[in-house]
Amino acid sequence: MTATDSTGNLTHSILVLHGPNLNLLGQREPTVYGATTLADINQMLEQEGRSLRVKVTAFQSNHEGALVDAIHAAFGQHQGIVINPGAYTHTSVAIRDAIAGVAIPTVEVHLSNVYKREAFRHHSYIAPVAVGQISGFGSESYRLGLLALVHYLRQQNPM
Ligand code: CA2
């Protein structure tokens, strides 16, 4: 599904997915993940979406199957996905298969630089099915991910 902007022009619709524990952002472990809450990030992305003329819809779940269901439901509804799969980045073949299955261009984002952290965070099951990955810029990773995705979609399919 595509949306229209205030001038009636067609725009892309982008789904932002947040994985497990990201609902705790700004409330727990601020030294690791910062003081910005998930609501702050979603608000910033909606605002960025307005200036890019894209519709942004956000969803968070702590459950792998719920994230898989959201990816399936995105088919025909959203033209792109920005996902921070959280710890499922390093474990989930199911999320990887869902992204590959719907073939919706997807950008993987991380708040922290996962390559500076423990070795188990250095492997992503999602990266091989993503357009690209942004890691290490705090909440700015999401904004950069949205910009990169919209740029990619407009190159592929100008509206
Ligand atoms: O850096 C990222 O964005 C991560 O996806 C965050 C995940 C971690 O497992 C990945 O390796 C990298 C963890 C998210 C946990 O979020 C919390 C936020 C506040 C308090 C506790 C956890």
UniProtKB/TrEMBL annotation:
GO terms for molecular function: 3-dehydroquinate dehydratase activity. The active site is at 33 (proton acceptor), 110 (proton donor). Pathway: Metabolic intermediate biosynthesis; chorismate biosynthesis; chorismate from D-erythrose 4-phosphate and phosphoenolpyruvate: step 3/7. It comes from Leptolyngbya sp. NK1-12. This is 3-dehydroquinate dehydratase. Belongs to the type-II 3-dehydroquinase family. It is an enzyme of class 4 (lyase). Substrate binds at residues 84, 90, 97, 111-112, 121. InterPro entries: DHquinase_II, DHquinase_II_CS, DHquinase_II_sf. Catalyzes a trans-dehydration via an enolate intermediate. The gene is aroQ. Coiled coil: none annotated. The keyword Amino-acid biosynthesis applies.
